[in-house]
Design a protein that fits this description.
Oligomer: single chain
Shape: elongated
Order of helices and strands: HEEEEEEEEEE
Helix content: 10-25%
Strand order of the largest sheet: 1-10-9-4-3-2
Number of strands: 10
Structural class: alpha+beta
Distance between the termini: 84 Å
Radius of gyration: 30 Å
């Protein structure tokens, strides 16, 4: 026979207080477990980021010939990341990654200054992707541009 707890009044019907106590202990234990899981899951997701997908295929269609006026730019998708296609004032096409090398903000082409600009911390790049001023530590990744028919293809530069 289980000794009775002096703080719990005895029921004339038997062990009911012990069953309620175990139920409350299980409820509190599962609440503690769920609270710990809710805290540690985001911490683990931060410490172990998901695998980054590749840049996709080697070449993408960034635009059509008539899409860009001289001295303008356009953001396009290159795999899972944004790319920037710029048509210079001379009509030449330049393509580069649109992810700032400082804090990975998306950059944009400014036609008034003829520079690529990051709005997060006022980082500036020239139309070749080289950093001009601001906090970006490295130039933007440059891509190759090919015009085939009326489509503009962009692909990663091949290491030789």
């Amino acid at each position: 026979m289980v000794p009775s707890d002096p703080g719990i009044p005895q029921s004339p019907h038997g062990p009911a207080p012990v069953r309620r106590r175990r139920f409350i202990e299980a409820l509190l234990g599962s609440g503690f477990f769920l609270s710990a899981a809710a805290f540690f899951y985001p911490v683990l997701r931060f410490l172990v980021p998901p695998k980054e997908s590749d840049m996709g295929s080697g070449s993408v269609i960034a635009a059509k010939i008539g899409d860009l006026k001289p001295n303008s730019g356009k953001i396009f998708r290159f795999g899972s990341r944004p790319g920037l296609l710029v048509r210079t004032t001379s009509g030449e096409y330049k393509a580069m990654s649109a992810t700032c090398t400082h804090l990975a903000c998306t950059v944009q082409y400014r036609d008034d200054t003829r520079e690529v600009w990051c709005a997060c911390h006022n980082g500036k790049y020239d139309v070749n992707g080289r950093n001009v001023s601001g906090p970006p530590p490295r130039p933007l990744e440059a891509f190759e541009v090919q015009v085939r028919g009326d489509e503009i293809f962009v692909r990663r530069r091949q290491e030789s």
